[in-house]
Design a protein that fits this description.
The protein is mostly helical and 152 residues long. 65% of the residues lie in helices and 0% in strands. It has 5 helices and no strands. The longest helix is centred in the middle third of the chain and has 27 residues. The termini are far apart.
Length: 152
């Protein structure tokens, strides 16, 4: 008999100690009961994929050694949280799930997104991001729109 078999695990992996990871696990279990078993399979599948993506990217990010790698996974998890919130909106608007449960789940999603934002840190603006931002600002300027001026 192995000496470690009957002892409870006391050592945690890095992601297991994160509050956001624990919250994401509870979130996943709760939201999978939102849809009726015979509900739309596409939405059920997307709901499950998004909530699992949140959990897996938090775990993977916590296990990364460099700050950019960690940040990238936390940002991906945050994106999956936003996707999940959009699915909740669809479920609520189409009256597939109870509106009160969708709102409660959305509150969890908001909290998870906030926690992930804190873990990811401030946005990093690279050259490509700055150019995209400049272009979007340029086209939102009324003087640069078609027929009202020229593009700089």
């Amino acid at each position: 008999m192995n000496q470690f078999e009957n002892k409870p695990a006391t050592v945690q992996l890095s992601h297991e100690s994160l509050d956001v990871y624990q919250l994401a696990l509870k979130f996943h279990l709760g939201v999978m009961t939102l849809l009726p078993q015979r509900g739309p399979p596409t939405l059920r599948d997307q709901l499950e994929r998004a909530s699992i993506s949140i959990i897996l990217n938090i775990a993977e990010g916590a296990g990364r050694r460099t700050t950019p790698d960690r940040r990238r996974h936390f940002v991906i998890a945050q994106g999956s949280t936003y996707e999940f919130a959009a699915i909740l909106d669809i479920l609520r608007l189409r009256k597939i799930a109870q509106p009160s449960r969708c709102i409660a789940a959305r509150n969890y999603a908001v909290r998870i997104a906030q926690m992930l934002s804190r873990l990811a840190g401030p946005p990093r603006w690279g050259v490509a991001s700055r150019l995209t931002l400049q272009r979007s600002m340029m086209f939102s300027d009324p003087s640069c729109q078609a027929g009202k001026g020229h593009v700089r």
